[in-house]
Amino acid sequence: MEFAFKNGIRGFSQRLHEVIDQLDDTDLGLLQVLLDIAVNPDQEITFKAIGEQLAVTPKELDHILTRLEHFGLITWQADPVQVAK
């Protein structure tokens, strides 16, 4: 999985401020994980590991990522192997 903060960190921060009241705890948990990855890009983390960390299924994680993308916070793309599953 690849992700980026939409419009850079400044744009992400501004957009987060606008929509934070619409996000649930799982959305915020995933944002925390993504921020941790951004700060430590050398750590190896998988889609599966993120799901386990958040205690969600792959389908639920996909939905949360899509939701964050819909809110204009991130862009993301699944790995080809992940899509095939």
List its salient traits.
single chain; 85 residues; mainly alpha; 5 helices
Can you describe this structure?
This protein is mainly α and 85 residues long. It has 5 helices and 2 strands. The protein has a two-stranded antiparallel ribbon. The protein is globular, with a radius of gyration of 12 Å.
Mean pLDDT: 90
Count of separate DSSP helical elements: 5
Q: Give the termini distance in whole angstroms.
A: 13 Å
**Rg computed from alpha carbons, rounded to a whole number of angstroms:** 12 Å
Q: How are the secondary structure elements laid out?
A:
Layout: E1 2-5, H1 8-19, H2 25-39, H3 47-54, H4 58-70, E2 74-77, H5 80-84
Antiparallel strand pairs: 1-2
Would you summarize the structure shown here?
This protein is mainly α and 85 residues long.
